[in-house]
Amino acid sequence: MEGKGVGVERESWGSQFGFIMAAAGSAIGLGNIWRFPYMAGENGGGAFILIYLGAVILIGFTVLLCEFAVGRGGQANAISSFRKLVPGSAWWIAGAFGVMAALLIMSFYIVVSGWTMAYTWLTLSGQLTGVAAYQLTDIFNEYAARPVAPIVWMGIFLALTVAITATGIKSGIERWNKILMPLVFIILIIFMIRGLTLEGSMVGVNFLLQPDFSQVTGTTVLLALGQAFFSLSLGMGIMITYGSYLKRKENMASSAATVAGLDTGVSIIAGLAIFPALFVVGLDPASGPGLVFMVLPAVFDSLPAGVLFGTLFFFLLAIAALTSAVSIFEVLVALIKEKLNLSRAFTATTVGIFIFFCGVTASLSWGPWSHITIPFPGLGDLRLFAFYDRLSALVMLPMAGLLTCLFVAWGWKFKNSIKEITNDGQLNFSWLPVFKIMVGFVAPIVIFLVLLNGLGILPAILAWFG
Ligand code: PHE
User: How far apart (Å, rounded) are the C-alpha atoms in residues 118 and 140?
Assistant: First the structure.
């Protein structure tokens, strides 16, 4: 039976194209289509984009390649890969942070994904047609607080995630990413053309691209780096797990560059699609992930063929989210199936049921359970949804990323990790000197600063120095 038992050959990707689509499918998600444009808009537009590009090229690409290498070298799940590469050491803790991040992120990500499906339906059935912009906030808040409907949509979304993951690497995950990712690209390009051909679109384009260095501070750099991390799906065990299904002959450095390039390209295209429309309609680019649901429906409604474009947009979000959810789910499935020696389908179903209940707690925290809060340093009392989000983004992801870099440089040791990356010296990796400096020093230091900043410690230290 597939995936069961020791000695059975490990599953692997069918082609490099399939692997790249799967990794890009993980990277491209809500982070690109909403979070990135907004962050760029609020943090100096083109200036933020330049800093972001630097963050992706220098640190994002580096950590991505490290994760691929750990996975392919270890040929196991996100925790065991570290163990196999350096037996008897405590480096597996790096993987454990990633797995904890995966569990937390999955718990709230499926809730947001459920909303995207609900809004696809609400738009298609005309329930958002003719609704004034100011009413959308109430509609969203009322909807998210409901006890049943969001959980039903979340369950449907999760069932799709489980079904794809349960079918296996090649015939499930790879196959669906090869279908869904090109669809995401095509729909996004349609939106970009639509946005750019609106009368007065240049205001939005300028807002996004004109570098305004007056708004750039140290925090901007840390925000850009955090965005790069989240957007490339780093520190969640994902790229380690996906890397573990790579065959020895594949060129990981060029795959990592392609994935980082696709992800960044999609972020910029999403900005060019959304901002012109926002400005033409006269709505302010407001903040936060919930605003996809509070602002964009009004934008579509005021444009020709609004129902069509609105439905298509939320459908786009839903499939982008699905390919990301599959990747984070696979982190948990791979771990448990290998640890307990269970079949893939059984593991996926059981873990799916468990995650469903985690998701329920996140969803209910918008309504019936809004009184349940957990204190978080610097951020006060957080509801469960926000707690899962902040704990993973501010602590688990940077910890996993930091330890992974240190592992590749000093734990597993450069001589071994570089052997893995260059396929035993067969590939020529001209970026190597830069890579070494980044992995060994720059990335750990910068990620450490992100960590301190996220915990509110950095601002305190800076304030102390006056
Ligand atoms: N990279 C994803 C994005 O940009 C983030 C993510 C991946 C979130 C996988 C959850 C699971 O949206």
Answer: 11
CA distance 352 to 250: 31
CB 233 less than 6 A from any atom of ligand 1: yes
Ligand 1 centroid – CA 445 distance (Å): 24
DSSP string across 180-219: HHHHHHHHHHHHHHHHHTSTTTHHHHHHHHSB-GGG--HH
Closest CA to 99 of 83, 114, 111: 83
Measured CA to CA, the distance from residue 267 to residue 49 in angstroms comes to: 10
**Residue closest to 229 by CA, chosen among 92, 59, 19, 406:** 59
- For residues 444 and 68, the answer to whether their CB atoms sit within 8 Å is no
Per-residue pLDDT reduced to its tens digit, 81-123 = 999 999 999 999 999 999 999 999 999 999 999 999 999 999 9
**Which of ligand 1's atoms lies nearest the C-alpha of 327?**
9
What is the residue type of 75?
A: Q
Q: Tell me how far the alpha carbon of residue 234 lies from the centroid of ligand 1, in angstroms.
A: 9
Structure confidence by residue, pLDDT tens digits, 167-207: 999 999 999 999 999 999 999 999 999 999 998 899 889 88
Q: By the 8 A CB rule, do 32 and 270 touch?
A: yes
Residue 41 token pair = 């808009």
Ligand 1 centroid–CA 450 distance in Å is: 18
Distance CA 386, CA 421 (A): 37
Query: Hey, what amino acid is at 252?
Result: M
Cα-flanking dihedrals φ and ψ of residue 423, to 5°? 50, 55
Residues in Cβ contact with 37 at an 8 Å cutoff, skipping those fewer than 6 apart: 208, 267, 270, 271, 274, 275, 285
**How close is the Cα of 16 to the center of ligand 1, in Å?**
21
User: Do 161 and 110 contact (CB within 8 A), yes or no?
Assistant: yes
User: Is the per-residue pLDDT at 466 higher than 70?
Assistant: no
Contact between 225 and 446 under an 8 Å Cβ cutoff? The reply is: yes
Query: Per residue in 274-302, pLDDT tens?
Result: 888 888 887 776 555 556 888 888 888 88
Q: Which of 248, 327, 347, 308 is nearest to 2 (CA)?
A: 347
Give me the helices (H) in 56-174, please. 61-74, 80-85, 92-124, 133-144, 149-166
Check if 32 has its Cβ closer than 6 Å to any atom of ligand 1.
yes
- For the chain, give the number of residues: 466
Determine if ligand 1 sits within 6 Å of the CB of residue 253.
Answer: no
Coil/strand/helix, residue 262: helix
Ligand 1 atom with the shortest distance to the CA of 232? 1
